[in-house]
Amino acid sequence: MAEERGQTFSFARKFYGDQFFAKPRGADTYSDLTGRTFLVTGSNTGIGFALATHPARLQPAQLILAVRDLKKGEAAKESIVAQTGFKGALEALNVKRFAERANTTLERLDGANINAGVHTWSWAMTADGWGRMLQVNTLSTGLLALLLLPLLQATTALPSPHPDAASPPHLTITGSAGMLLANKGRYYNTKLFNWYLTREITNLPQAKGIAVKYIYTGFGVSSPS
Ligand SMILES: NC(=O)c1ccc[n+]([C@@H]2O[C@H](COP(=O)([O-])OP(=O)(O)OC[C@H]3O[C@@H](n4cnc5c(N)ncnc54)[C@H](OP(=O)(O)O)[C@@H]3O)[C@@H](O)[C@H]2O)c1
Q1: Where residue 48 sits, what CATH number does that domain have?
Q2: Is 64:105 a contact under the CB 8 Å cutoff?
Q3: Is the pTM of this model over 0.90?
């Protein structure tokens, strides 16, 4: 009981602290992204849309919106161009087919934001026989991360487009402070699993030289309209 209260208190402290008092950190957020390539999954709406719009303002060479609904992806693309004046290559691609294509057609990948996720209160199973949230939030996230590692790794050996602003390729997984509530609901468990997933990926030899990160945003909404 006391342990449960402690867990809820840790979550509340973290959540309210981050939600109302945290300020964005990290000078490299504003690095020159010229010549670099980024991708964000689940970027047609929500946090993913915001995660794609921010780098668009910094004018990388290529930005890929990996989405499951191409129509929504195209709408997000138009909105990003209108908001940011992005002039590079901007593509909406089907997330399922993306990983195979990425490793054969992209020359470099400087940042992969694996963000797509789902939060429901009802139980549903996928055609593959997994709980839907577990498959979308954790298994697919891990699979895509592993499939993209070779390209991210290959990018570590390429010259930086800006030698004075060298930066390792980033692999970022969208988590949640809700992981502190693990065992209080399936969604929270999937986000704790993503924390472990991120740690395991960090320790892989193939992740050497790649900045692997678990991020959480606090509670937020955003949309292309
Ligand atoms: N919003 C928050 O306050 C908050 C807080 C903490 C963590 N997060 C995390 O942030 C991430 C984004 O959440 P959000 O709030 O921005 O949610 P959202 O607005 O519902 O967006 C979720 C995105 O994931 C995509 N997606 C869902 N199921 C998918 C599937 N089976 N295959 C491929 N793509 C799928 C959605 O595509 P469709 O549009 O086609 O459905 C959409 O692009 C999630 O990982 C979530 O756990 C959010």
Answers
A1: 3.40.50.720
A2: no
A3: yes
Q: Could you tell me the two tokens for 220? A: 């937020």
Q: At what angle do helices 46-57 and 70-84 cross, to 10 degrees?
A: 40
Q: Which helix (H) or strand (E) is 113 found in, with range?
A: strand 111-114
Residue 1 located in a structural domain: no
Number of compact structural domains in the chain: 1
> pLDDT digits over 73-132, tens only?
999 999 999 999 999 999 999 887 788 788 889 999 999 999 999 999 999 999 999 999
Domain range enclosing 77: 34-215
Q: How confident is the model at residue 165 (pLDDT cuts 50, 70, 90)?
A: confident
Q: How many CB atoms lie within 10 A of CB 74?
A: 15
Q: How far apart are CA 217 and CA 172, in angstroms?
A: 12
The ligand 1 site (C-beta within 6 Å) comprises 42, 44-48, 67-69, 72, 95, 115-119, 136-137, 174, 176, 216-217, 219-220
Residue 144 domain flag: yes
Determine the distance separating the centroid of ligand 1 and the alpha carbon of 115, expressed in angstroms.
7
Q: Of all helices (H) and strands (E), which one includes residue 40?
A: strand 37-41
In a domain, 208, yes or no: yes
Distances (CA, A) of 207 to 28, 121, 172, 173, 181: 20, 35, 12, 14, 29
